Prior knowledge:
Elements: E1 7-10, H1 22-36, E2 41-43, E3 50-54, H2 58-68, E4 77-79, H3 83-89, H4 95-104, E5 109-114, H5 121-124, E6 129-133, H6 138-147, E7 151-152, H7 167-174, E8 180-183, E9 194-197, E10 204-207, H8 213-220, E11 225-226, H9 233-236, E12 256-259, H10 262-271, E13 276-280, H11 286-291, E14 297-301, H12 306-320, E15 327-331, H13 340-350
Residues 154-155, 163, 243 line the site of magnesium ion (MG).
Amino acid sequence: MRRPLPDVLPIRWPEGLPSPPAETEQALDRAARVLVDGGLVAVPTETVYGLAARADDPVAVGKIFAAKGRPSTNPLIVHVADTPMARRLAAAWPDAASEIAARLWPGPVTVVVPRGRSIPDEVTAGGSTVALRCPEHRLTRRLIEKAGVPLAAPSANRSLAVSPTTAAHVLESLGNRIDLILDGGPCTRGIESTVVDCTSVPPCILRPGPISREQLETLLGQPVVLAPEPTDARQSGSAARSPGMHARHYAPKTPLVLSATAATHVADLLAAGKRVGWLTTAPDAAEPRRLSASRDLLVIPMPADPDSFAARLYATLHALDKRELATIVVDEPPDTDAWRAVRDRLTRAARR
Ligand code: AMP
Ligand code: MG
């Protein structure tokens, strides 16, 4: 069924203003009505754009899976306006969740806790836990308050593709499959939230993200473990616990290679007559400078600090997908806690 393209409504909330400008309030009111009526709205958050539906309505939640082409076995994160709203959705509130909510919310970290009765099966893929997050983005929280219901919201892209960090990315990926897009500008964090399972002892990071393991350990005063590296659920035949756990995910259409010897890789590809994009944190080193004499090479300078790298990563991949390259080569980032989330996304993007 063909639908018209959704309206894209700009929203903003300049620092220092006690409430958003009138046009933004009107846009949020309209979005809240669409959500309350069971529709789909793409919303900016500090991590990536989310595709939101009211989390308490199985029919509305079902539309998210249909629009994304997402397998129903993959649970969704429920976004809340504050901690009291989160607690109402949980059957229990473990100490780790309590600490994380008190110290890191609103923020880019999701807690997995025992599921309360108001959460439908569709949200949790039938599981006994629910993932909850209170976003840092003030306009996202204001929208949730206006809607008056928690919002289930995975990334606003077709399943397994690169997540959107601008409204334009959402329009390209989901276009006429959704009802409305709120455009709050580029996402500041640029990668998905850290997901922490607070039902296990010690707490377990199911998906690395902007809040690092080190930060969580310091905050919780106890060890925090990392879930094992991805194995391909499709190959092993077992159901994926979540989309972030798919071995291949976050992938551009152009093949991506993660390499500790990127210069050699790039040189070989150029010698074979291929067009190459090279994401490097050292664009001024000898090799990139020498190789960039080739018209078939696009050297993309990337920030050397992991948070800035993350903020720019998806927008860079979206842009390179339009350049008709044979391969995107990326310098392998250091194997350290600070780079964990970026390494995770790049590793999955590189899987074929
Ligand atoms: P996305 O919606 O694309 O940001 O991905 C949602 C992420 O939420 C997945 O990668 C999971 O790690 C996580 N998630 C959501 N619900 C649960 C749950 N009940 N148990 C474990 N992980 C969950
Ligand atoms: Mg996603």
